[in-house]
Specification:
seven-stranded mixed sheet; about 20% strand; 14 helices; six-stranded mixed sheet; alpha/beta; Aldehyde Dehydrogenase, Chain A, domain 1; Aldehyde Dehydrogenase, Chain A, domain 2
Length: about 500
């Protein structure tokens, strides 16, 4: 197994951590070390932020036009496309996800995101506002400054691109803190940035423990904006730390999303949608459809088909092209999932399939866990309320539309929901009634870069993707021009 070594990327150069310390990331399928990383400390965070600040205030970046920034972002997109196989392999080595997912979904979507914001860069504009009196009033959108970006381990480069691309399109500079488990693709992106001519200091990457490096980045006085994708508890801590500097923040946090199937839905489509909604990426998805709400009249037939298909999912080595389902990201995550399954059994849920590590030599070294389905789940159960972030589906039945909406909203989260029905009026009624930021009707987990993404309640603050994300990385400046004669005559 190949092993790469990375330093920190600061000011356009690769540098060692000031302490000289390193740490390692491992392949979740075997436990083999795949990368040695520089372990940053507060001094390294300070260097990275200062490099980003200098690039924002004094370097080439503020002198570039929006059109030129857009061209660079499109070149980044092409640079990633040219190295698609390499990026996909690194993503799989870090996360354990099947290589077919990295090749067909993750990295191509990164390309799309950079390409989209390359096109949007010169379309960020203010507005003219009609005001009373002899005035011209208009607004400008200006970059917020240095953005500290903290990204998770489940979709390392894809979710990083949701922040990096719009921040650079808006004219900001960035310091990125990838997850310690999965840093390689965010680091490798630095080489693409250099190759296409992104000025030094615009893109910086620091690696190390979130408790030290992430905290130092959030609290640094040179950081104007903080964006985090992570669990809700981490989001609360970031809010608290950022409040000391009254920083601009955006948070994409956890979810416990309902996937609602009515009796008039196309059953085969809904079964496949439910499987994709929960078992894609081994269930390590913030908007996973982890609560399957089934109308009582179709329960038995639906679950018969669902369980049969779940048992047919091909588990295997992530680098083999036929593998559909790989290991979880770490031993810690595996044990977390096992704990929730045990809880479900203790509370009286019925295990229909899975619920254990797969047997066989091929799975002996990795963090594998079988696709798991529980029925007879009650809304108050732990597995129906808490985010598991793994391949565990909780099936809850409902009698009618009113009860479905009540169960769907019975959660602290509000990230996403799915609705399966042939009745278009019902689909819109339910979509309006559910308190969530993303609703899919007769599909699930579709995330085009043109459409906004984000949550209600404890699922976060702000919207990523689409044109909506630009508001997270810009300040609005209002300018009023007096066009009359004589001026103000209040005194005198």
């Amino acid at each position: 197994m190949e092993k790469r070594k990375y330093g920190l990327f600061i000011g356009g150069d690769w540098v060692e951590a000031e302490s000289g310390e390193t740490f390692f990331s491992a392949f979740p399928a075997t436990g083999e070390v795949v990368a040695e990383l520089a372990k940053a400390g507060k001094a390294d965070v300070d260097k990275a932020v200062k490099a980003a600040r200098a690039a924002f205030e004094e370097g080439k970046w503020p002198k570039l036009s929006a059109t030129e920034r857009g061209r660079l972002l499109r070149k980044v997109a092409q640079g990633i496309q040219d190295r698609l196989e390499e990026f996909a392999r690194l993503e799989t080595l870090d996360t354990g996800k099947p290589i077919r997912d990295s090749l067909r979904i993750d990295i191509p979507m990164v390309v799309d995101v950079f390409d989209y914001y390359g096109g949007l860069a010169d379309k960020i504009m203010g507005e003219t506002i009609p005001v009373p009196g002899n005035f011209l009033d208009f607004t400008l959108r200006e970059p917020v400054g240095v953005a500290g970006l903290i990204v998770p381990w489940n979709y390392p480069l894809f979710l990083a691109s949701w922040k990096i691309a719009p921040a650079l399109a808006a004219g900001c500079t960035v310091v990125v803190k990838p997850a310690s488990l999965t840093p390689q693709t965010v680091l490798e992106l630095a080489n693409v940035m250099n190759e296409v001519g992104v000025p030094p200091g615009v893109y910086n990457v620091i690696t190390g423990p979130g408790s030290e490096v992430g905290a130092a980045l959030v609290e640094h006085p040179g950081v104007d904006k903080v964006a985090l994708t992570g669990e809700t508890q981490t989001g609360k801590l970031v809010m608290e730390m950022a409040s000391k500097g009254v920083k601009n923040i955006s948070l994409e946090l956890g979810g416990k999303s309902p996937n609602i199937v009515f009796e008039d839905a196309s059953m085969d489509e809904a079964v496949r949608g439910a499987l994709f909604g929960i078992f894609m990426n081994q269930g390590e998805v913030c908007c996973a459809g982890s609560r399957l709400l089934l109308q009582e009249s179709i329960k038995e037939e639906f679950l018969g088909k669902l369980v049969e298909m779940a048992r047919g999912i091909r588990l295997g080595h992530p680098l083999e092209r036929e593998t559909q389902f790989g290991p979880l990201v770490s031993q810690e995550q595996l044990e977390k999932v096992e704990g929730y399954v045990e809880s479900g059994l203790e509370e009286g849920a019925q295990l229909l399939t899975g619920g254990k590590r797969p047997q066989g030599e091929a799975f002996s070294k990795g963090f594998y866990y079988e696709p798991t389905v529980f029925s007879e789940v009650k809304p108050h159960m732990k597995i129906a309320q808490e985010e598991i972030f793994g391949p565990v589906l909780s099936v809850i039945t409902f009698k009618d539309e009113k009860e479905a909406i009540s169960i769907a909203n019975d959660t602290i989260y509000g990230l996403a929901a799915g609705i399966w029905t042939r009745d278009v009026k019902r689909a819109f009624r339910v979509a309006k009634a559910i308190k969530a930021g993303n609703i899919w009707i007769n599909t699930y987990n579709m995330l085009p870069p043109q459409a906004p993404f984000g949550g209600y309640k404890m699922s976060g603050i702000g919207r990523e993707l689409g044109i909506h994300v630009i508001s997270l990385y810009t300040e609005v400046k209002n300018i009023m021009v007096y066009l009359g004669k004589g001026g103000v005559k209040w005194f005198g």
